[in-house]
Structure of Protease I:
Amino acid sequence: MMSKKIAVVVTDLVEDIEFTSPKDAYVEAGHTVETISYKKGSIEGKQGASFDIDKTIDDVKASDYDALLIPGGFSPDLLRADEEGRFGQFTKQFVEAGKPVFAICHGPQLLIDTDLLEGKKLTSFISVRKDLENAGANVVDESVVVDSNIVTSRTPDDLEDFNRESLALL
């Protein structure tokens, strides 16, 4: 198996386990994970853990990576608030290139900003589903959904399925 380089877009109030569980699974499988946010330094998770940031969104391009992870919590909503839309554009480049994108819980919110959800089968945390439908997605209530290169899940309870399907796509 070839080692892949995975980008994680994340900021404060990320759901800790939705970041650490997939990251640990990817690293254990031999992949490299880099965290990307507004600024270097560290961020604070929803449960209070501190996470180091490797690069800023201005330092990276999608072509540097093989896959993208979007953990949930309040982080995706805060990333969408970027006035220049850089995180949405970054995500869009992965979808357009057919690269794997893994989004759990509130993570699919960032997918809305790609304007590429028409006809895609997705799932998410319940409060995000209507927004995904409005963006043209076919939304279902399942622990994990794989639509071509996009893997989505609903909650931390789905992490086992989410990690399994994400690793299978890598």
